[in-house]
Amino acid sequence: MNNKKEWFFGITISFIIIVCIMLYLILYFFNNMERLPEGELIGESISPSNEYTVKTYLCRGSATVANAIRGELIVNGNKKNIYWGYREEEAIVEWADDDTVIINGNSIDLPNGVYDWRRK
Fold it and tell me: Which of 9, 58, 89, 114 has the least C-beta neighbours within 10 A?
């Protein structure tokens, strides 16, 4: 009887570890802002202070996935994704001030802020 309990315990722990690893990989590969599709450049906007450039891209969907907009911040030649909007086909970019950009009504404080529709 003791042998069956040890076997059952081992199988249960193994199953839990496998599920945890799978969840981690799913979150890492599918919810990472740096793993977004490139898309087609549709616009570019420079901040009033000329410190930041925001480029917007249309990522075309398919039969099961809608179009999305990706926003990319460029500072001193370094690129970083700051915007990911799903079910969007155009990007309206406005500057509230030198360090705040508004993309499709979503305010982002630069340089560290991001908007990701999956995390709102």
Answer: 9
